[in-house]
Design a protein that fits this description.
By secondary structure, the protein is an alpha/beta fold. The protein folds into three domains: 84 residues, Orthogonal Bundle (Arc Repressor Mutant, subunit A); 106 residues, Periplasmic binding protein-like II (D-Maltodextrin-Binding Protein, domain 2, 3-Layer(aba) Sandwich), CATH 3.40.190; 97 residues, D-Maltodextrin-Binding Protein, domain 2, CATH 3.40.190. The protein contains ten helices and twelve strands. Strand 8, helix 7 and strand 9 form a beta-alpha-beta unit. The relative contact order is 0.13. The mean pLDDT is 90.
Length: 308
């Protein structure tokens, strides 16, 4: 059985692939050309196949060597991430809070909560990742203290913190026929309307499609967007109407956009997640408290606007 590579051999191999000559690699490693030449010979004997072709005083990696090099670089990229994280920790003057959130909340719910938390803890560093925290797992490792999701979630590896229960609202371009009037809109009001829809796999898109299909209502779908903010921008541009989550919609109210209630509006649940095997940090609990308070304020605003 051939012996496994040690770290010194990996460093020698990487240096030669990068610099192309033993002399340059030796200088980079603080070694000598004769020493590195012997190490290359031992390295090839250790792996059991030729790593380099010698042409015109340069060492060219073989196809096998390039595959090995790419595998090594992938491993080193993980080490680079570890070191980058270490540098951030050293640079931070205080605690680091890691947040994973769906993009829609990074643009609606989270900014105000972060601002309130920073006023309380100005030395805090918050790292925000725009990704679905439900895609992480105990196997791959939870990389957040607080995660923000929509919808209900049940997993023994995470604690679920309810933040708010809402109902979706209608977004109408100012001047559109549906923008006038009072009271909630109904499914039939959207017959033959240009409708800005979310992506075909979005769970709320699927719910709305089923409601319209069951009611026999046909809409025109000129644009499909992958994000709620993108859909709001399309409505603001006058391309069509839409039905979206109220937290995002409120940010566009009055900006060439009218909001109206929707009689058959699906519920919209906002929750925070915390990995059960990750220690609670004080700022995570305080951020969750601010998020819950902002959701309650949004509910009051929606009620005042007669949108619920």
């Amino acid at each position: 059985m051939k012996p496994e590579l040690n770290l010194r051999q990996v460093d020698v191999f990487r240096a030669i692939v990068k610099f192309g000559t033993v002399t340059a690699a030796a200088a980079a490693l603080g070694s000598s050309q004769p020493t590195l030449t012997r190490e290359v010979l031992r390295l090839e004997a250790s792996v059991g196949f030729q790593l380099f072709e010698r042409r015109r005083q340069r060492l060219h990696p073989t196809a096998r060597a390039l595959k090995l090099y790419h595998a090594i670089e992938e491993a080193y990229s993980g080490l680079d991430k570890i070191n980058a994280s270490l540098h951030r920790m050293r640079a931070a003057s205080g605690e680091i809070l890691q947040v994973s959130t769906l993009p829609t909340f990074a643009q609606s719910l989270l900014p105000e909560a972060v601002a309130r938390l920073h006023r309380e803890a100005p030395g805090l560093t918050i790292e925000i990742d725009n990704g679905d925290p439900r895609n992480q797992s105990p196997i791959s490792g939870f990389n957040f203290d607080i995660g923000l999701i929509e919808g209900e979630y049940d997993d023994p590896t995470t604690e679920v913190i309810p933040l708010g229960l809402f109902r979706q609202v209608c977004l109408i371009p100012a001047g559109h026929p549906l923008a006038s009037g009072t009271g909630p809109l109904h499914l039939q009001d959207f017959e033959d309307q240009a409708f800005v829809s979310l992506g075909p796999k979005d769970p709320y898109r699927l719910i709305l499609d089923r409601l319209f299909d069951e009611a026999g209502v046909t809409r025109r779908l000129p644009v499909t967007m992958q994000s709620a903010n993108g859909a709001c921008e399309m409505v603001r541009s006058g391309i069509g109407v839409s039905i979206l989550n109220p937290l995002t919609a409120l940010g566009y109210l009055g900006d060439r956009v009218v909001l109206r209630a929707f009689a058959q509006a699906p519920g919209f649940v906002v929750s925070a997640l915390h990995p059960v095997d990750r220690p609670w940090v004080d700022t995570a609990g305080r951020l969750a408290g601010h998020l819950k308070a902002i959701c309650a304020e949004a509910q009051q605003r929606l009620q005042a606007l007669q949108l619920i």
